[in-house]
Amino acid sequence: MPDQSIPQARTPEAPAAEPVPGAQGISRRALLGTAGATGLALGAAGGAVGYAAAPARATALSSVGADRVMFHGKHQPGITEGLQARGHLVAFDLAAGAGRKEAAALLRRWSATAQRLMAGEAAPHDDTDVARDAGPSSLTLTFGFGHSFFGRTGLEKQRPGALDPLPDFSSDRLDKARSDGDLWVQIGANDALVAFHALRAIQKDAGSAARVRWQMNGFNRSPGATAHPMTARNLMGQIDGTRNPKPADADFDQRIFVPASGEPAWMANGSYAVVRRIRMLLDDWEQLSLSAQEQVIGRRKADGAPLSGGDETTPMDLDKADARGEYVVPANAHARITRPDRNGGAAMLRRPFSFHDGIDADGTPDAGLLFICWQADPLRGFVPVQRKLDRGDALSKFIRHESSGLFAVPGGAAKGEYVGQRLLEG
C-alpha cells in the first residue's frame, strides 16, 4: 500500500498551477485571504506533496484558494498535479437511446463547465453559488471512457485493446453496481465546497443524456497541515506513496502516458486509470502491534524508512538478513512484493483519496482507499503487480477490494476543443 498497490501521488513541480488573474478584486469567486505571490507558494509546496522533500515553510491555508490548474494542455488535469484535499469520483451510463451524437454534446458541455470552474468562474448556466466566495482551489476535472461506452456509441473499432476488462483476482469482492461505467469523471480540489460545486455542475450537465451509475467521495490531508511538504499517510497510519514515479524520471512519460504515435490515435498523450475501492479492515489492523504492522508493510511506521535501514528515500536492501538468517524485510512484505524491479519494471502513478462512508451496525468503519493509478498500459502496469499481490501479500488479509473500473482517459483538449473530440468526431 505505501509503495505500489495503494497509491499516492505528488508532483515536485506544478507547472500548471497559476494564481488567479486579477485575484486582488472582489468578484463572484472573491478570494478569502491572500493571492498573487502567496498563491505561488502553494504551487511549490503543494506540488511537492507526495514525494520526499527538504523541509520548507508550510503553506498558509489562506492562500489555498488562489491556486489554479489550467484546463487546456497536453494531458488532462488531475493526473500529475499534487494530491488534493477533497475528491469525488462519479461514473455515468448513457441513457437508453443516447449514442455518439448525445455523447459528443455531453462532453462538449462538460468541457465548457470544467474550463470555467477551474478558472474560478461560475458554471455556464444555472450556477448554484455553492463556491461563490472561493477561488479555484486547485480544482481539476478529468474525463474518461469505459469499455461499454464504445458499444453504446457505435465506436467499437476505436476501442483500445488496453481497455479490455481486467482479469479476475482471487481477493476481489466486487460490487458490480459500484464498478465500471460508460463514462468516468474525477473531481479534485483543495476546498470541499469547490469540489462539491463541480460535482453538482457535472451532474446537472448530464441532463437526459446520462445517469449516475455510482459516486464516491474521498479526502486527503489539507495543504499546509504539516510543517513541511511530506509524503501523506493513509487511514492505517502508514506513509503511503514513497516510491511513486516522479515527472522528473527519464521514463515517466513512457510509463504513464500513451505516446503521440500510439494507437488508437485519439488516445495520444492520454493515460489509463484503474479505479478500485479498497476497504481497510481497520479493526483487525489496529489489533496488530507496531512491530507486526511494520513487518506487514516492510517499512517503519514513524518515518516510512525501509526495515533494512536508512530514511524514507533509502533504497530497500532486500537481501539484508538478521542474526537468525531471516530477511529483515519479510518475503511477503507489501513493499517488497510491489517493487517495480520485482515486477518486470511495472510502474504506475498512484493518486488516491481516502474515504470514510460511515460506521456499520456492528461498529465497523466503512473506510479505506479510493485507489486511482495511472499508466500507459494497464496490462503492463496494474495487472502484473496486482497478480503478484494476489499470490501472497501480507497486507491482503487486512484489505478488501470492493469495486473496480478501468477507463481510457484521452489527452488534454487544445484550446477550442472539448475532451474526447478526436474520438467522437474523428
Automatic annotation (TrEMBL):
The record's GO molecular-function terms, alphabetically, read: ferrochelatase activity; heme binding; metal ion binding; peroxidase activity
Q: Is the keyword Iron assigned to this protein?
A: yes
Q: Which domain of life is it from?
A: Bacteria
The segment(s) forming the Dyp-type peroxidase C-terminal domain are 231-413
Q: Where is the composition biased (Low complexity)?
A: 7-23
As its record notes, the protein acts as a catalyst of: heme b + 2 H(+) = protoporphyrin IX + Fe(2+)
Write down the NCBIfam families for this protein, in alphabetical order: Dyp_perox_fam (TIGR01413), tat_substr_1 (TIGR01412)
In which family does this protein belong, per the annotation?
Answer: Belongs to the DyP-type peroxidase family.
Q: What protein name does the entry list?
A: Deferrochelatase
Native source species: Streptomyces actinomycinicus
